[in-house]
Amino acid sequence: MLSKLFSELQSQANPRQAEVLQSFFKAGKGQYGEGDIFLGIKVPVLRQIAKRYKELEMKEIQELLNNKIHEHRMIGLFILIHKYNKADTEEAKEIFYFYLNNTKKINNWDLVDLSSPNVVGDFLLKNYDKKQIIYDLAQSKNLWEKRIAILSTFAFIRGNKFDDALAISEILLNDSHDLIHKAVGWMLREIGKRNLETEEEFLKEHYKDMPRTMLRYAIEKFDEEKRKRYLRGEI
């Protein structure tokens, strides 16, 4: 079945689109996605293909995640999410730890963003006593594990639980990578959509020390005058 999937993906390959994606996801030498290989298949198409292969076994999903081709790893994650959503308590736990064992293969921001809230975040929301795991990930030296940590809190935010998202944001406040700045700012903005007072309480304490990109993402939905005052440091 896996060989059939590989053939189907290859048949959908678009070299021109692949070249665009190589650039967009920074797959060049010295960039954060160095070595990532793209077929040039758009996400809606991948989602449709994944539905037809949702019964793949875990060992086959592992093969997909081990693959150097970006779309193979993405398909593996789509199928993993499907399995997680259908899983009983014990199966969900196995999928959660399977995910954690593969964090270094979930190694571009789109892979992290589409999967971590739906697996790691959801599992920890339901098994809150294990939440220390995302705090450990937040202090990793690995870029993707740090992004998994903050994006996983999206599941908490959707459940109107903000404390862990704010705590992880504080841990990552001085991180050097732009992809972490964007992710933290995004999660702060999501908090603000649900509770503006909570977001602003955090911002007023930290905004002068935040990387500029993080702040811009966090205040993106504020009215223009308030955004300007934050950017000028006048709050």
Brief rundown of the structure:
By secondary structure, this protein is an all-alpha fold. It is about 70% helix and about 0% strand. The relative contact order is 0.07.
Structure description:
This protein has 235 residues and is an all-alpha fold. It has 2 domains: 1-107, Leucine-rich Repeat Variant; 116-235, Alpha Horseshoe (Leucine-rich Repeat Variant), CATH 1.25.10.90. Helices cover 69% and strands 0% of the residues. It has helices spanning 2-11, 15-24, 43-52, 58-66, 70-86, 89-100, 109-115, 117-126, 132-138, 143-158, 163-171, 178-194, 196-206, 212-218, 224-232. The longest helix has 17 residues, at 70-86. The chain starts with a helix and ends with a helix.
Q: Which keywords apply here?
A:
Leucine-rich Repeat Variant; mainly alpha; 2 domains; 15 helices; 235 residues; 69% helix; globular
Outline the secondary-structure elements.
Layout lengths: L1 H10 L3 H10 L18 H10 L5 H9 L3 H17 L2 H12 L8 H7 L1 H10 L5 H7 L4 H16 L4 H9 L6 H17 L1 H11 L5 H7 L5 H9 L3
Helix pairs in contact: 3-5, 4-5, 5-6, 7-8, 8-10, 9-10, 10-11, 10-12, 11-12, 12-13, 12-14
